[in-house]
Write a structure and sequence with these properties.
Blueprint (H helix, E strand, L loop, with lengths): L2 H22 L9 H9 L21 H20 L3 H11 L5 H29 L4 H50 L4 H11 L3 H14 L4 H12 L2 H16 L3 H26 L1 H31 L1
Helix pairs in contact: 4-6, 5-6, 6-7, 6-11, 7-8, 8-9, 9-10, 10-11
Length: about 325
């Protein structure tokens, strides 16, 4: 690849990026924020029309170049927030995944994954350069792409850990809720029921109940400790379960019946999810039948007849 081709590819990349920024910022494609939607209805003290304002000089602290680069910076921030969330969001995701690590450790792992991607990309391009003639521009793009892929791989794996942990919690939760209902219905207190669950239950939800029991013994109110547990799990069924316990405790509703109803709701939700998954997997289940079993059946049905025709001739 000559130098002219490299510069042409770079200019084409810049043109495509500019057209993409213009396209995604069109009013028809740009999603309006909730604050922008309600701002005209709650604005107070504005007596002049906004059409008379000079929008170019509205931000007096920014230069013209900064205002021109603002859409691109907003898009970069949005993409960065998707793959690198803020400290509070990241802390919630780590708790939902059940990982006892600090934010610095997680960021360090992201850097390690990115460096591993860069090393893998460099090795791949070195092997490719031995066999073929590869331009420097393409090599740099491939290496950077490997680094970004390695960085994004850590975030993807964190999402997978959260999903697997939530599935385990939903699998164990109905049984735990029924045991809690039986224990409370037998006359034991809520704290005693939690202590019993922490002793007899193993797995993810058992560890969370153990942490909740430790918080209660440390002086945290029972309701607050349960809410902290639901915040750590980040599971909708567990949040509804804790909310039902809080409401039943505040209003004096029989707690055993509330726990039974919550267990039944979770079982029904699991059945609905199973039916939805089965409905989505119908097409994927047809692929081995149509492309594997059906052609093999046709071959077994037609081949003996073809063999007899050849023998007759």
């Amino acid at each position: 690849m000559s130098s002219y081709t490299s510069w042409a590819a770079l200019c084409g990349l810049g043109l495509g990026l500019g057209l993409w920024l213009v396209f995604v910022n069109l009013p028809g494609w740009r999603r309006m924020a909730f604050a922008d939607r309600i701002a005209p209805h709650v604005r107070v003290g504005v007596r002049s029309s906004r059409m008379l304002e000079d929008s170019w000089h509205s931000d007096s602290g920014h230069s013209a170049l900064g205002q021109l680069a603002a859409p691109m910076l907003q898009q970069i921030k949005k993409l960065a927030s998707l793959h690198s969330p803020s400290a509070g969001t990241l802390r919630k995701r780590l708790n939902a995944a059940g990982l006892d690590m600090s934010l610095v450790d997680y960021r360090s792992q992201e850097i390690v994954y990115a460096l591993a991607g860069l090393v893998a990309g460099s090795a791949f391009m070195a092997l490719a350069a031995v066999q073929y003639h590869v331009s420097l521009f393409l090599s740099v793009l491939v290496v950077i792409g490997f680094g970004i892929s390695g960085y994004a791989l850590r975030g993807w794996w964190l999402g997978e850990q959260i999903h697997r942990r939530s599935r385990k919690i939903l699998t164990q939760f109905p049984t735990v809720a029924e045991v809690l209902a039986l224990t409370v219905g037998a006359g034991e207190s809520t704290t005693g029921a939690i202590e019993r669950i922490s002793r007899i239950c193993h797995g993810v939800i058992g560890e969370e109940f153990t942490k909740t029991l430790n918080d209660i013994h440390a002086g945290t109110p029972m309701v607050q400790a349960m809410q902290n547990m639901s915040d750590r799990m980040q599971v909708g069924a567990m949040t509804r379960f804790v909310d039902a316990i809080v409401v039943a405790t505040e209003r004096g509703t029989p707690l055993a019946q509330v726990l039974r109803d919550q267990a039944q709701d979770v079982r029904d939700a699991s059945k609905r999810e199973l039916m939805e998954v089965a409905g989505k997997r119908e097409i994927s289940m047809l692929i081995p039948v149509v492309f594997g079993i059906l052609p093999l059946t046709i071959v077994f049905a037609v081949f003996p007849g073809l063999a007899l025709l050849e023998m007759s001739y």
